[in-house]
Amino acid sequence: MMRTLLTRTLYEKRWFLAGWSVVFAVMTTLVLLFYPSFSEGPAIDELTKTMPQQLRGLIGDPDQYKTIEGFIASQIYDIRMPLLIMIMGLVLSVGLTVREEETGELRTLSAVKLSRTRLLVEKWLAGSLIVIALNLVAAAGTYVGVLALGEPLPHELIWRLMTLSSIFGIVAFSIPFSVGIGSGNRAATMFIGLVVTVGSFLLTTFAKAVDWLKDWEVLSLVHYYDTQSLKSGDFSQADISVLLVVLLAVLTFAIIRFRSRDIA
Amino acid sequence: MRKGKSTITLANVTKRFGDFEAVSDVTLAVEPGQVVGFVGPNGAGKTTTISMMMGFLKPSKGTVTVLGTNIEPQTSHSVHGSIGYVAGDMVLPGALSGRQFLAFSAARNGRIDERFNSLVDKLQPVLHKPLKQLSRGNKQKIALIAALQHAPTVLILDEPTSGLDPLMQDVFLDTVKDESKRGTTVFMSSHILSEVSSVCDRIVFMRAGKFILDKPVRELTSQLGKHIVIKGHDVGKLAKFLPDSAKLLYKNANEIRLSIPSANIKTFMRWIVTKEFDDILIEDRDLDDVFHELYGGKTK
Ligand SMILES: Nc1ncnc2c1ncn2[C@@H]1O[C@H](COP(=O)(O)OP(=O)(O)O)[C@@H](O)[C@H]1O
Ligand SMILES: [Mg+2]
To answer: Which class does domain B8-221 fall in?
Structure first.
């Protein structure tokens, strides 16, 4: 376990992983428990009909709740999953970067035979594996929920959603991680992390109702995380490409900066 | 400077933080096997200098080499396997046990099992508890083992005994002495001169970002001379007849205290035996006092 920084970091983050696993498992299973009232009850139809057009954008098309596929894609994976993943990713990235630098642990780590690039890459890999692990937990929670409801299991869809959400999660984690390790500045890391998270959600949810925001919605990170199209079609190559380009850009920035900067 | 041969070199090294110059144009060569005490008051720039030797900080100007490698943040790791580093304010990963942390260091830097075992025998560290639960002294034992288990050729120590109780300080300094006997080059900072003078054979004194003195300890101590205290009824009146070489530091009716250069001790003794007194005390001088005398400012 202590042979590499990657495995050591995973070991050090085991309680973090356990805690967030509970959050993701509970969220997915709990949300599914509401499926019967959505699919059967007329209440939701009534509610959306009486809602002003602007607010309807926030909850989406009511017809999509009527099938288990639609419910999983919209109620679990559309808003809640990326929001939780982004918050988790911000906390994780601060813990792996600026917090360790503030305590002085990063200097201790830099005193061993481990290049700056490798240090960064192993930490990033550890963080990314945690993102993937939590997505597996969320998928498992979804399975449990569906089984409890006695509904047919949409294997293909869950697998796709999990994959997209993992890629999205790694990118969302990598942005504040790169700022944190590249700059060592907590304020900058928190600021960028929060701007990306809050900004993306405000943009994407309000753009459905506010016309002038529609042009700007492409700036939202969740714009490239489209669960609705996964129900029928395949992954959008354009979306995945944008996410990968963002990932590459922030990691390149981080490596270049971290290789030559002072460690406080 | 003999390039390529010295273990550590600093060539016209400057480090600025914004407008503030923490280290100003310092130059130094540490030869293999030397044990250098790096002394100066708090804020002198010692940690900043050492951080550039470790590659934590990038010099604003000048070059640093350790074991022939040019030290920059991107290159320093290549020599870290030959360096043992301990800082007094070092933070160890709190979630790991001593054994785990040492295993990690060993995986990166290497470990010589015999050495590890003898260090464990000598220091009796607490290996199984999470490091965050250990006292300062026990943490420092782990840090010292991590720094020594791979038999480094250079030890870089930044006020390594600060915050340790006197007993642990002695154990620590003893271990450093053992290392130097094996031929390990040691560069050790301290703000207490007497501490390093007991271990080191060369002293570099830093103040306000500059190296203001660099001398073998032997030379320093021989320059110091002795303090002589004479006690007895009415010895105070001897003060008027002192030889020129003696400097009066203190007197009352029954006691006088003098400072005498080492070279003049014999003559002084011949003179004093002809006088009446009850007791005489000859004291070695504390290097700290001398620095107060020589440089005015405080060393503590
Ligand atoms: N990262 C930094 N930013 C700004 N000033 C610093 C920084 N690190 C050290 N200094 C300043 O540089 C001076 C030297 O500090 P330091 O090398 O830690 O001294 P020493 O180790 O001799 O006590 C101090 O005045 C300190 O405040
Ligand atoms: Mg210091």
So the answer is: alpha beta
Question: Residue B299 has what pLDDT?
Answer: 42
Å between B191 CA and nearest CA of chain A? 21
Q: What is the pTM of this model?
A: 0.88
Cα(B47) to centroid(ligand 2), Å: 4
- Residue ranges, CATH 3.30.70, chain B: 226-284
- Chain B residue closest to A14 (CA)? B95
CB contact burial A10-38 (16+ within 10 A = b; e otherwise): bebbeebeeebbebbbebbbebbeebeeb
- Least Cα separation, residue B51 to chain A (angstroms): 9
Where is B21: in which H helix or E strand? strand B20-30
Per-residue pLDDT band for A19 (boundaries 50, 70, 90) equals: very high
- Please give the distance, rounded to the nearest whole angstrom, from the Cα atom of residue B48 to the centre of ligand 1: 6
**Among B64, B62, B87, CA closest to B9:** B64
Which residues sit with their C-beta closer than 6 Å to ligand 1? Answer: A 264; B 17, 20, 22, 40, 42-48
Task: Please provide the average confidence, as pLDDT, over all residues in chain B.
Answer: 90
Distance from the alpha carbon of residue B287 to the mean position of ligand 2, in angstroms: 20
- Which among B57, B77, B103 is the nearest to A115, CB-wise? B77
H-run or E-run covering B77? helix B77-80
Q: Do B36 and B53 touch, CB atoms closer than 8 A?
A: no
- The answer to whether residues B84 and B66 touch, using CB atoms and an 8 Å cutoff, is no
**Higher-pLDDT residue of A44, B211:** B211
- Whether B58 and chain A come into contact, CB under 8 Å, resolves to yes
**Fold for domain B226-284?**
Alpha-Beta Plaits (3.30.70)
What is this model's ipTM? 0.89
